[in-house]
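Exam revision sheet. Question 4 asks you to relate a sequence to its structure. Input first:
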Amino acid sequence: MAALSAKRITKSRGLTRKVRYLMANGVTVYTGGMVCLNSSGLAIPAAAAADNRAVVGICVASVTSADATTWCEVLEGEFLMDAQTLAQDDCFKIVYADDDATVDDAQATNAPVAGRLIEFVSASSGWVRIGPQILVA
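Answer key, structure tokens:
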């Protein structure tokens, strides 16, 4: 799979909660893409990098940061995500962000936690709960 280069529709279900984060300078996050925080606590597109923290949500509206005062709004909740190699026995396990559009059951080098797989749909998609509450067992 590949990182987003334009907005996309990411289906959600159930309750969602909107929160916002300051963005890192010079990055673009796309509507429907996963957003994570870097080691400075600033929002960036989810990607496997050594200093990236867990995914915090799905981007509400595409935005490019111009300075240190740009905010990114994200939704926490359950989202239908593209995947690499999910299986039924991955349900309720942690999944990882390969990029801002794709999750996987196996953690690639430096891939941040994306969320918890709530429902297996197929090897290439599943419902993932995204937000800080997923880190609680």
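Marking note for examiners. The two ends are 29 Å apart (CA to CA).
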